[in-house]
Amino acid sequence: MAGEQKAKGKKEQAKGKAKETVGRAVGNESMEAEGRLQQSKGDARQAKEKAKDVFKH
Q: Which one of 2, 13, 39, 54 has the fewest CB atoms closer than 10 angstroms to its CB?
């Protein structure tokens, strides 16, 4: 389950980065901000899963 959540976090980070890049390229500030938010969610998910791993061991 933890591996699945880590993968989900990575996927969110990648999608967010792509959305941010596209938003910047077309001059859409809203899309760019949405991409940064999605990356942050992915970062938070990754951090949460890493913390769980630390406490497991």
A: 54
